[in-house]
Each structure stands twice: as C-alpha cells, then as structure tokens.
Amino acid sequence: MHEMAICEGIIEIVADEARRRSFSRIRTVCLEIGALSHAAPEAMRFCFEAVAARTIADGAVLEIKELPGIAWCMACSRSVEIAQRGEPCPCCGSYQLHVTAGEEMRVKELEVD
C-alpha cells in the first residue's frame, strides 16, 4: 500500500509549512489526485488519518478533488478523457494517446489555525 508512504510525505509537507509560517494546527488538507496517479482516494483517506495522528495534522480532514485523466489522440487530433492508461480513444478507438493530465497529486490548500 504505497498510499501510506504518500500520506507520510503529505504530513511532512504540511508540517514543514506549519513550521515556516507558525501554524498551530492543520484543520483541513485539500489534495488534488489525478485519475492516472495510481493512488486510491479511499486508501488515501484511511492512511492519512493513521499517519496524521499525534502530528500537527491530528484530526485534520483530508479533502480530495479527483481530476480526470486527459490524453491527446494523435489519430483524431482530439483531447479526450480516459479512466486509465491503455484504453482506446473514446472517439475513434485508436490507442495512439499521449497523456496530458491526470497524473498529478498535489497539496492544493491548507486550512489552519
């Protein structure tokens, strides 16, 4: 379960930011996760709660915004939404797709005290 390691990294990021900006508590962490990032949002929520315990983010809410996978179809010259790598273009059926979005994962916002 690589989500645990990812959540540990998120806690490090928010703890570093808290030290830099003198936050006393993290209330909410807003995270963007792309559909092609290979991170399961439900697993992230579970792991975040476990990793945040006894840290500055103890009790914080993890809000996840799921972003779609987007690819450029070289055959029909369209930007298309895909759920996973390896699937065909929903418009023309071609497999000549170049992923342009949906692999990202980033801390977008923090709600703090």
Automatic annotation (TrEMBL):
This protein's record includes keyword Zinc: yes
Pfam families: HypA
GO process annotations (BP): protein maturation
Protein residues bound to Ni(2+): H2
Binding site for Zn(2+): C73, C76, C89, C92
UniProt KW Cytoplasm keyword: no
GO MF entry, a single one: zinc ion binding
Keywords: Metal-binding, Nickel, Zinc
Family: Belongs to the HypA/HybF family.
Function: Involved in the maturation of [NiFe] hydrogenases. Required for nickel insertion into the metal center of the hydrogenase.
Database matches in HAMAP family: HypA_HybF
Protein name: Hydrogenase maturation factor HypA
Organism of origin: Bradyrhizobium jicamae
